[in-house]
Amino acid sequence: MKVTVMGSGYVGLVTGACLAHVGHQVMCFDIDEARIASLNSNHLPLFEPGLDSVIASGVREGLLSFSSDAEEAIGHGQVIFIAVGTPQDHNGAADTRHVMSAAGLIGQYMKDYALVVTKSTVPVGTTDRVRETVARTLQARHSPLAFDVASNPEFLKEGSAVNDFMKPDRILVGTESKAVEKILRQLYAPFNRNHERLMVMDIRSAELTKYAANAMLATKISFINEIANIAERMGADIEKVRQGIGADPRIGYHFIYPGCGYGGSCFPKDVAALEASAIAEGYRPQLLRAVREVNARQKERLFEKISDYFRGDLKGKTIALWGLSFKPRTDDMREAPSRMLMESLWDAGAQVRAYDPQAAGVCQQIYGQRQGLTLVDSKEAALEGADALAICTEWKSFWAPDFALIRATLATPVIFDGRNLFEPDCVISHGLDYVGIGRIGVVQAQQSEGRVRSINAA
Q1: What global pTM score does this model have?
Q2: By CB count within 10 A, which of 151, 165, 431, 453 is most buried?
Q3: Candidate list 266, 363, 392, 426, residue with the active-site label
């Protein structure tokens, strides 16, 4: 089947590459000519494990191509996916201008029947507006061409997106048309062989399902972080609590790992957008607002703990930072907790020596040659000349460090573990103070003084 993907960002590239991988003829379009030139030169604009090889295979087999020519791209596709960005506007709502722009281009350059599929995460009712925009543009052309629309939200996790697409939990389709359902069943047949994964519902329900899924996951994260903060004050260990509640199959272990807050391109934006959409309909969603507020506060916790440990005097201190991306296996720093931590440290007069396996280049693009920021190429190099170590991202390469080296290198032997990677007793046994999230009173062992000190950040 001939497929066009409008938008060559994260979702668009994964969608296009994976569809080409199973034999569809795919053309990815983007108005950014530099991005298309980069893709045509075999340079990916983002890091996603496995994506480079899938793209290379599709290009090599002649099944995947890239174009900045809207007429060429739209003329190519029997199925046209809209996979452009929907950033937050100043009110927190999703900005759908790029979606409507894509719809306008489709109406302008369609040459035959096409199925227009909204893949972007969009507010309820957006696909109806896509239909109206395409129809209005065709009418202005005096064109009798027929088309259909559908919603097909993505459920891709950064860091495992290729596998998520190839082996989906579910394939969600929003349509009331049996003909459209038949087309999409044919398109997704290679991903739907073992058992039935395709779920069909009305368009508005499909649009809301995507937002509801992300809001639920964000809620679980904010909930466990709220409990972690309570645990610190009550002398409980959140890791024990997490295991206790996770053993209940009604709750499960997924997304109940406490830390320094969630980030990325989805959860912060989608929770805010769903809240804004609800308010626009006359309903104030108190839970969604609480999820946002808890997460915003949680991103401040690691800095508070560092500041409290050093009794508010961080001027001239250097903090080694392990992890910049909002999660492992990606270079995405959008809404990353590391950004709030670094900016708070700089405001307090501290310096940062940071290492991330993938996100250093992105960090450089964000902050440039900023005074107070040194990007290094190994986690060991980050420790050099540092007073303390903070961890913001749970990269696997951080899980089993050389504690003796950390102890010998840091001016003040302390680890601020924003992802609870380590057991406090293990860290303390190596002569290091340990500050985690929700770990028994924020326990720290001051071995040089022969005593244990506890600090509870407000």
Answers
A1: 0.94
A2: 151
A3: 266
